[in-house]
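Dear colleagues,

As part of the handover before I leave the project, I'm documenting each prediction I ran so the next person doesn't have to rerun anything. This entry is a single chain, and its sequence is reproduced below.
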Amino acid sequence: MAKNFINDDFLLQSATAKRLYHDHAEKMPIFDYHCHVPAAQIATDHNFENLTRAWLAGDHYKWRAMRANGVDEMYITGSADDFEKFYKWAETVPYTVRNPLYHWTALELKRFFGIDEPLNADSARTIYDTCGDMLRSNEFTVRNLMRKMNVQFVCTTEQPQDPLEHHKKIRDDKFEIEVSTAFRADSAMAGADTTGLNSFISGLEKACGTDIADYAGYMNALKKRHGYFAENGCSLSDYGIERAFAEDYTNQEIEFFFQKIQSKERLRRSDRLKFNSAVMADLAEMHADNGWVMQLHLGAVRSVNTKMLSKLGPDTGYDSIGDFEQARPLARFLDRLESRGKLPKTILYNLNPADNAVFAAIAGCFQDGRIPGKIQWGAAWWFLDQKRGIEQHLNTLSEMGLLSRFVGMLTDSRSFLSYPRHEYFRRILCNILGNDAEAGLLPGDIGLLGTIVEDICFKNAKRYFQQPRPNPAG
């Protein structure tokens, strides 16, 4: 039987790298400050029926690979049964060599299920049955999957109108792993989609038990939900938008635009950019006032395949890297907040690798000399969270900022089996530092380098996100 190539020293190319990983990185808990796992499944301590349900459902990384390998949509999001879908994924895995999916697949099978055999068409049935038996057992409930990976903190993502009942249930259960949420208010500034924005406003009215008649009422409703999230332990926000909005505007203009939106009139492009700029600035000030961390995921062009959008809906694997202008609007947005004394702790994520140096440089312009690493250039994201993308991110951050203050990796995943991505990142980090030490580019001081590794893997994030944090209600 062929053996999995994942061994104890996977990705570690020097003795110093191995020491840094095994003595320092490996023992650090996981602080997963941004993901999309369903809080409902944590609340119910869900058991997955099989590996397809745990691994393939909602995973557009795998879906894209299967489509590229010529797999019919019936076996991806369609009507095929669970094993047929899994078998088509197993057939695809050998073709993912040099794609991060190849590494992640092997790591996840080994870390969760102790499987060393490579996944392919020949091994599919045995692996499917073996993992299915495990997943249906008490030892492999969602909460036990998290315990198995030494997870200490998880932050999901919910919209402002969400009642957060699942988070309350998790807290009431006194689950020892802290589960929080991020306030995701992209829809609040969807000035280009009048129908969608009115639907969002209606949902906000229902959640707040109030009518929204003007822009001030709109902001008051969002502030009320902001407070509700804070009462329930939230101290993070997140936005997934093309670029920052930072146009000049007057209050009178914004009120006029809001009335047009409520009348279901389409705004001109210049007007909706102004409207989005006002909403984005007002929300950011709420975050600053409450001591929250603001996350900006910038640069995705969404749902570029309109045929498949109409068939499957959004978030199904048809998004891409965008080439939007980032530097000027992002700098103007941050400067607007800074000039008002309202710039919160902020993490900036770029999707286009051409913007790496831009984001690293802009982050350095708004550090305040009080909070270490207040403005973070966030981890390599989405299309960039592979070995080369992580290495490029760490190298650019080292050259333009302070690597030692970096808050580290996250899963950004919908799957509870994705926690080995933290291990993947940690091994790459240790390899870079270890190889530099052995090349004479860094001191061979394991105490110094080990402290930096532990900080990046866990301690920096714990300090950054948890001091201070609001007290959950109840």
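The longest strand covers residues 151-158. Residues 198 and 262 are 7 Å apart (CA to CA).

All the best with the project,
I.
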